[in-house]
Amino acid sequence: MIQSVNSNGRGQQGPPDLTEILKKLGNSGGPSGKFIIGIAIAIALIWGAFSVFYTVQPEERAVVKRFGAVVGITDPGLHFKIPFGIDQVQRVATERVLKQEFGFRTQGTRQGGRSTYSSQDFEPESLMLTGDLNMIDVEWVVQYRIADPIKFLYQMREPTRTLRDISESVMRRIVGNMLGSEVLTVGRVEIQQKAQEEIQEIMDGYDAGIRINTVEMQDVVPPPAVQPAFNEVNEARQERERMINEAQKRVNQEIPNAEGAALRTVAEAEGYATERVNRAMGESVRFTAVLDEYLQAPEVTRSRLYLETLNEVLPNIGQVLIVQDGQISPLPLLDVNRNAAPRAGGEQ
Question: Are the C-beta atoms of residues 185 and 138 closer than 8 Å to each other?
Answer without folding.
Answer: no
